[in-house]
Amino acid sequence: MHPKYLRIDNFTYALPDDRIAKYPLAERDASKLLVYKEGDITEDVYTNIAGHIPADTLMVFNQTKVVHARLLFRKPTGGVIEVFCLAPSSQYPDIQTAMLSKGHVIWECMVGGAAKWKPDMALQVVNVAPDFELSASIAERKQGSFLLKLEWNNDSLTFADVLHHAGKVPLPPYLNRDADAADEDRYQTLYAKEEGSVAAPTAGLHFTEHVMSALADRNIDTGFVTLHVGAGTFRPVKSDTMVEHDMHAEWIEVSLPMIQKLRNAVDKKIVAVGTTSMRTLESLYWIGNNIFNGNSPDLDGIAVTQWQPYQAGNNCTPAESLQAVADYMETNQLARLITRTQILIAPGYQFKIASGLVTNFHQPQSTLLLLVAALIGDDWRKVYDYAMSHDFRFLSYGDGSLLWGKMI
Prior knowledge:
By secondary structure, the chain is an alpha/beta fold. It has helices at 95-99, 159-166, 183-186, 209-217, 256-265, 275-292, 318-331, 367-376, 379-389, and strands spanning 32-37, 40-45, 58-62, 64-66, 70-74, 80-88, 104-112, 123-127, 132-142, 145-152, 194-197, 221-227, 250-255, 270-273, 302-304, 336-341, 356-360, 400-404. It has two domains: 3-65 and 190-404, QueA-like, CATH 3.40.1780.10; 69-168.
């Protein structure tokens, strides 16, 4: 069956509120680890994850960094309107350029209490240290969101600086609580580097210096890509079938040395740490497949569209694809590949780059759960039933799993 015709109600399970981890454990790598391979399930903790991964494996991490995307603006009348910054407008070539803007930006945002915001009303946030005023006005109303013009009166500050000082940690809505001081550190991976996400790549939250050292001791290589997680990752599938679901697009960024590292490792085992890393790796394959077949990639737009993997022809090997990407980058003198992907990985998808996945336990009827089902088939139910009956903690601050695909 083509994934377009999958019914989302076939990918649901009962998730009681008390099984959602509202806070992280005291130690990152003390979280429980479910290991699935060839139909068998075992249980361990993250501090021992290296022992479940073969030597010479390449593990790929998402090094995106969560920004303080939640802003609370005050109306002249004293009321508060919440603004959730999603992504820069299309006038910017990438997130990094937009984050380094000074003075003003145009940003796509969700607005809480938008009905109370009159079109000619400017909202303000006053920040004391450092001293600046941030104002917001509506540039354009979109379906479900707004383009806002955000301006601040301290030209020494970038937008990244403004968010850091005026914004709040954007915890997932299902945690149903305000962020506290501990979330500043714990809702960020140890290796976070590139600012731009409005949600953490939560599979990476379990990794510590100890775990990374243990991987190196077993001759397990590591590499880093970037996918800036958008708020769409929390958006449930509301249509009956996937054909009516519009997959969100997200920015990815991969360096040429990382492409070359993947090319050298593709005949071994590659494990994606998180669904975001997996989406990045598989998107690279389809970008390379286009190049291999003589088609220039649309790096300025959406390089991989939602249904492209299910309709592409003349598919090359993973090695040929990654080599094509590397050659393209060298020819065009690109140190980094920066573009957007809308890839939807659902049952029926054939994985090209990664054969294993480290991931948390996801919401029912979500595209993240579809990705898990694509990797391990109907055994996703077996995995989730085991996790539920063995007191695993669910979602962003919960426990996680190491899942080996059906080809292992």
